[in-house]
Automatic annotation (TrEMBL):
Cell membrane recorded as keyword: no
Protein's name according to its UniProt entry: Precorrin-3B methylase
Entry keywords, A to Z: 4Fe-4S, Iron, Iron-sulfur, Metal-binding, Methyltransferase, Transferase
Molecular function via GO: 4 iron, 4 sulfur cluster binding; heme binding; metal ion binding; methyltransferase activity; oxidoreductase activity
InterPro entries, per the entry: NO2/SO3_Rdtase_4Fe4S_dom, NO2/SO3_Rdtase_4Fe4S_sf, NO2/SO3_Rdtase_FeS/sirohaem_BS
Signal peptide start and end residues: none
Organism: Lysinibacillus macroides
One BP term from GO: methylation
Amino acid sequence: MNAFQKNIPDQTFETLNRQGDFTRLVISPGIINKHYTPAQFQTIAEVVGERGAIKYSASYSLLLAIPTSDVKEAIYTLQQAGLYIMSSGAIIAMKACDFCDGEKMEAAPITEQLYHTLEGVTVPARVRVNINGCASACYNAVYDDIGLVYQQDSFDVYLGAVPMGAKAQAGTLFAKRVAVAKIEVFVQHIIQLYQTYARPNEPFYKFYRRTKSDDFWQRLSRNNH
Ligand code: SF4
């Protein structure tokens, strides 16, 4: 019965934005881990307090509206509680599945390595790199800008997804079986092409669709083999 009950707090993100100066924080327990501890939930509730708001997003995160004057302290407290705060803007943002609650961790080390190399790199428009740990791809890697699907010491690489909207569409398979040892350089190369040839603010899928028959993509695909 609760599924459709009206349960909207007085403060929604919309009403808060009309009322005053609030900052939105995007938080999660980590890139791979999807479990919050009760203590983390308590910290989140305390940080948001009576004045802010909490809601969940469509991309494995909680969104917090915090009075802008309190944001610096809020970030410190949330990070001390072990929470990850996602940066906003035109950067590379990393996503991953939870590797079956940590039971299927073969691709976890390379995921962490890619995170350290790529997260936060500046690009013409925000790029989501989503790594899934097996061919089930149950965290929808193929629906993000760069989808990496792990199987047997390699990744299938999907590009060009339209993640949302009436024309939402999965990406297409760009490269098959890119070895784990090569994937970091391979993805960096994709990013470099985007940084070099994209128009200002051009989303990744538009860039890829506009240029996909250009030589530089074919060269990259050939070099992988
Ligand atoms: S994509 Fe595969 S490894 Fe990742 S959570 Fe789903 S089933 Fe598990």
